[in-house]
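Mods, move this if it's the wrong board.
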Amino acid sequence: MELKKLKARLSTAVRGHKLLKDKADEMVRRFTVLLREDKRLRDEVEGDFSAALRQFALAGALTPPYVQETAFSMPTAKIGAECGTDSVMGVEVPRISLSEEGSVALPYAFSEITSEADDSVKMVSALLPKLLQLAAVEKAVRLLSYEIERNKRRVNALEYIMIPQLEETIKYIRDKLDENERASIVRLMKVKS
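Not the wrong board. Structure tokens:
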């Protein structure tokens, strides 16, 4: 009876090992896709961010600091972020979407500020959704990497500890049953003779 139970546990462990191995392969594939997306977004955001900073520096050189401070101190739009989660291979990853309320008009009079400031404000406002998307992708990459490590530990525990122990125990029980069977056959032969 114990041999039958162990055989059932072994077949379940082997099947679970195969499923976990397949899950690990798929998670690694999705991880690489997210990693490529992360790199692309990061390069894009860094390029846009440096361009916006250059534009702000140029605008700052052409406009006195007190005028800049007054011009940029009043917000014209209210931005809200709606957070949720998506599931990637059983891992909950963040999903962020923006909602903008208010006007798109610039918060200052055009006679006070140069056109470089206008361009820099537009660049920064276009950069915000990319930044949030980059943050969500990076968090997803981090969470997926943790889950890949956890899954790898499970696969290794099954492959190198549990399955060999079960096979060894099954072999030991079979050997004992075979030995008992041979002993009973020898006993019957002795009785018969």
